[in-house]
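Dear Dr. H.,

I hope your travels went smoothly. While you were away I took the liberty of generating a structure for the chain from your last submission, since the lab meeting agenda had it listed for discussion. I wanted you to have the full record in hand beforehand rather than looking at slides cold. The sequence, exactly as received, is reproduced here:
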Amino acid sequence: MLFDFMTMNHLSEKTCSLSNPGRPSSVHQAVILAGGLGTRLHPLTANLPKPMVQLNGKPFAEYLVEMLTNQGIRDILFLLGYLPDPLIKHFGDGSRFGATIRTSLCSPQSETGTRLREALPLLDPEFLLMYCDNYWPLALHRMENEWRGSGLEAMLTIYANDDRITRDNVRISSDGKIVLYDKSRTAPDLAGVDIGFGFFRRSHVESLPKGNISFERSVYPDLVSRGQLAAYVSGHRYYSIGSIERLEATARFLEFRPAILLDRDGVLNEKAPRGEYVCSPEDFRWLPAARESLARLTAAGFRIFVITNQAGIARGALTLDDLAAVNQKMTQEAANAGGRIDGVYFCPHGWHDGCACRKPKPGLLFQAQRDHALDLSRTWFLGDDERDLEAGYAAGCPSGLVTPMVPLDLWVSRVLSSMPNFHSPPETRSGEPFTQHSHHDS
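The corresponding predicted structure, in token form, is as follows:
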């Protein structure tokens, strides 16, 4: 097939704008609160500070530094207290990590506000404030664009917490402002949890009262009362080393195994005419080179998940059993050709049901993310409709549009070329059958 460079380049430009919209960030400094005793990680923190706890053979703080430098932040300031020497020795001046890394030291008993106040001479006029024990795929440019667009003084990243992995601590208004920040997590009608990754100004630190005070308890309520704290809400799960119980899941996420999300109809198989559906295995007809593309992805170690709207169920055109039979044929024939589909996520609702899972909403993508510890910022989503691009953008995925001019096999070539050195360990590809999930499945 002739490679249509003009079409591919056009779609590439569109894809980049969806994945990383707007101008480069003007926030150049990250400030990481890293001075606590880490008591919930004992005995691991008996001789190490919390951010230096090892996951997959390297300190957790190194994952944070790599993420920041990949986003273009080169000025990193650690606010240290408990056992600072291991971190200082590991990072040095930061040059081997492509950054300038500095530290500010306080007593381990110092509150967050005190640590920031002591570091005041080192702070930029605007900075990104982070906790040392939370990892979340930072979308720096997109976040800053939303912050600037809000016109508010500060912004916090809020995990939507739809899966209730922790207790909520914020209430957010319909216009995207945090209207209650409850560090005790006891107020009614809370929805979402602060995970750090906030934009603040040096003036917020300059205004702190004297004494050993919490930045969160002092500055956040003031910003809230003045309507000046924006919320950047994300459905992408965050990962933490805040307690022993969370280490396994966080290590699994940070290990990173590549994955790809694919729409079904129009990407893998021929799409039925509008208002009609693929209702039986006999209706399912592969598009050219689709099975070969799945085999190439599988051979490269990618996990493959199908994300599909199936409004025909709500309209009575097919049953859940019919859909399972179609998907069973798809996965079996893909396997016969050397490909492996690890899961199928489907929305059974109608066009106007208002659910959270029908694309262009990103509910199914976030469900796959949580189920399989995907890093959506590094997981492509390929579809055949503008709604797929919208869903990918909402989930933070790099996304592309499969068309007759740029079919799946060309997109797969692009995806594989972006990870030329990855090889999956053989044991990670062994033998469980695919799973099929609606949005409400766990």
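Two observations you may find useful: The chain has two domains: 21-253, 256-438. Confidence is low (pLDDT under 50) at residues 1-14, 16-22, 422-432.

With kind regards,
E. W.
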